[in-house]
Fold:
Amino acid sequence: MQSTPIRDAAREAGYVLDAAQQAAAEHLEGVLDRMQAGPARRRRDGAHGVYLWGPVGRGKTWLLDRFHGLAGGPRFHFHEFYRALHAEVWARTGTPDAMDGALDALLGDTSVLCFDELHLHDAGDAMLLSRALRNLLARGVTLVATSNYPPQGLLPDPLFHELAEPLIALLEAELDVLRVDGPVDYRELRVPDAAPVAPGWRGGAALVPGSARQLADAGLVPPSSREAVAVPLGGGRSVRALRATAGAVWFDFAGLCAAPISALDMLSLAERYGRWVVSDVVPFADCHVTTQQRFVSLVDVLYDRDLPLVLTAPRPLDEVLAVPVGRPAPPDLARASSRLRQLRQTAQMSGTRDG
Structure:
């Protein structure tokens, strides 16, 4: 008889799983049962894991985290995994079996790997990840991944999509591909303004229009011009912050998101600073798409690390993040918008005076 620990966890938390979530939970519980039965049954039953995909806010990460809590093993966000994998492979350039050595360093002899928010918009990422996945499957690793894209939707740019085809073929052949969809984006079920302030990401806020009174009510003292500092990024590069203290940083939106920095730089910054303020968010109608993408990457990184973010913007975020019809938009803007709706668009929040 199949055990039901993920569905039990939902009931204990007071969650009512919708049909797609129920099916995904049952499937993941089957994977757990096969893992406990040993490698012989895993080989006999075929699939090496599960690929959960669907729109934003449908509970894919919650399901992944419940599975991870039961199965153990490493859990990575895509940005984090790619940065670590690239560094390990680069360090072994010119040596035989560089990928083997890189995965040994990252994962050891793990038998299960959880991978959140798999998305590909770069051809180099696709080719490196394809090599890594082929190696992991050869080792018999059970992989559970989430994505907002079906396998065929990865690397959607028609100029480069064919470079992702080997990875797509592996995912479709070796993993059970499940769509987790439903009528509700659960992140849009807003927390009442009178509710206690949550820690982490949900402890952040969007202050509109970011007046001095709102900042003061949020416990934030605006930085003076004397506090501006160049924050090092590595490789002799830096980015200008309006203020940087132990564990906290305050950026101007244009100074951060219009600067030539990458998602990997955002990861590096998030490792140093646990509290963030980004002021004067520029409406996306007035931004280049690369500036928009950097902001989306920042939201991904801070959300995954559950770090609080305070934004100031001239108008409500749904208006600020709107891209005019006919203009290019970041491919993951919908996910970032969904996550940002969890921030309180009010001044009633706990903050810190060192910003």
User: Anything to note?
Assistant: Residues 347-354 have pLDDT under 50 and may be disordered.
